[in-house]
Design a protein that fits this description.
- This protein is α/β, with parallel strands linked by helices.
- 22% of the residues lie in helices and 25% in strands.
- The protein has three domains: 65 residues, Nucleic acid-binding proteins (OB fold (Dihydrolipoamide Acetyltransferase, E2P), Beta Barrel), CATH 2.40.50.140; 154 residues, 3-Layer(aba) Sandwich (Rossmann fold); 59 residues.
- It contains nine helices and 13 strands.
- The strands form three sheets. It has a six-stranded mixed beta sheet with strand order 10-9-8-11-13-12. It has a five-stranded mixed barrel with strand order 1-2-3-5-4. It has a two-stranded antiparallel ribbon with strand order 6-7.
- Helix 2 crosses helix 9 and helix 8 packs antiparallel against helix 9.
- The radius of gyration is 25 Å and the shape is globular.
- The N terminus is likely disordered.
- Bound molecules: guanosine-5'-triphosphate and zinc ion.
- The site of zinc ion (ZN) has 8 residues, from helix 8.
- Its cofactor is Zn(2+).
Length: 338
């Protein structure tokens, strides 16, 4: 009698549906479905080890140490990523889980690694707001840095918020005037006054804080998140606090919401960002720019840029807004002065 015996399954049978629960998805050897992988939020990354927050059945959460599974290929995992884990997700000491899925990112904060590597990399995922911390004085504001931060926010889908520190040392008016045309929200704070204006803007949202050295960012984060233990005043941060890596760390605000502090991220080099990404963040200008000639780069040198007519025909505020927009577009192509 010819025909197949029970032992003569084809290779295909091996990778197709195994008999099992009705309605279950086909399981294949090559592409595991990860239906049973556990969801988590990456709260810190340190030399290839991720700290991932996973809900526990009791309504709290545990922090699980995890590595990236090889199947993710080149896809990096960053703080703020929503991921799925397999393996030991108990969070017990000396256990290690594997990250098998990185969920699509709602926003991305990108920058170049340093002045020798011109590739933009994602440094934080899924933050809603970019809080750009700058001192009114001591150190003097670095406007190129601020402009590039704003571009990074606009092009990555984050809402920027300027936080001007050391308000006890000077007036914020000059800085504020510079950003008036952009309609970017700004708040002045100082170490000795309350944070009543800032706090409601952070509640319930994920905000990533960036700032150059000495601006008072650690002082501020410590006040917002009392158990953050960020080192201040130039003291080394290594060994202080729960997370000791130099990468971005996610911290819970007592009133709800989260802060992502970025101790190792003090500059923003942009390389792959396109001026069109900046334009997309300015609804009013983008609508006008539809009348521009093809290939118009919307700079002051483009002779028929529709934005020039729009500014000339309206109140002076339009001119300020256009000038600010063009400054940001120029910042995209600037070589950063770190
Ligand atoms: N006058 C004044 N000084 C402040 C204020 N906030 C912070 N400082 C001082 O500014 C210095 C820098 O503060 P940090 O909080 O360490 O600044 P940082 O931005 O974290 O800088 P790094 O520690 O280099 O990362 C410290 O000497 C602080 O005491 C403020 O509101 N007013
Ligand atoms: Zn144009």
């Amino acid at each position: 009698m010819s025909g197949r015996t029970f032992d003569s399954r084809s290779d295909e049978d091996d990778v197709r549906v195994r008999p099992g629960r009705r309605g279950s998805r086909p399981r294949t050897r090559t592409r595991p479905s990860h239906d049973d992988a556990v969801p988590g939020l990456v709260v810190g990354v340190d030399r290839g080890r991720m700290t991932v927050r996973v809900e526990d059945p009791g309504g709290g959460h545990v922090e699980v140490t995890a590595m990236r599974a090889r199947e993710l290929g080149k896809h990096g995992v960053v703080t703020g990523d929503r991921v799925r884990l397999v393996g030991d997700t108990s969070g017990r000491t000396d256990t290690l889980a594997r990250i098998v899925v990185i969920e699509p990112r709602a926003t991305t904060l990108r920058r170049t690694a340093d002045d020798t590597d011109p590739t933009e990399r994602v440094v934080v995922a899924n933050a809603e707001q970019l809080v750009v911390v700058t001192a009114i004085t001591d150190p003097e504001p670095h406007v190129g840095f601020l402009d590039r931060c704003l571009v990074a926010a606009f092009s990555g889908g984050l809402t920027p918020l300027l936080c001007l520190t050391k308000a006890d040392l000077g007036s914020p008016d000059e800085l504020l005037a510079r950003y008036a045309g952009l309609e970017v929200e700004a708040i002045a704070v100082s170490r000795d006054t309350d944070l009543d204006e800032l706090q409601p803007r952070l509640d319930g949202r994920i905000s990533v804080f960036v700032g150059q050295s000495g601006v008072g960012k650690s002082t501020l984060v410590n006040r917002l998140v009392p158990d953050a233990y960020r080192a201040t005043g130039g003291v080394s941060k290594v060994g202080k606090g729960r997370h000791t890596s130099s990468s971005a760390v996610l911290l819970d605000l007592p009133g709800g919401g989260m802060v992502i502090d970025t101790p190792g991220i003090r500059s923003f080099g942009l390389a792959d960002t396109d001026p069109a990404d900046v334009l997309a963040a300015f609804d009013d200008l983008a609508a006008v720019a539809r009348d521009c000639p093809p290939l118009c780069a919307h700079t002051a040198e483009d002779p028929d840029c529709a934005l020039d007519d729009w500014a000339a025909e309206g109140p002076p505020a339009r001119g300020e807004r256009l000038a600010s927009f063009r400054r940001l577009v120029a910042a995209v192509t600037q070589t950063p002065n770190w």
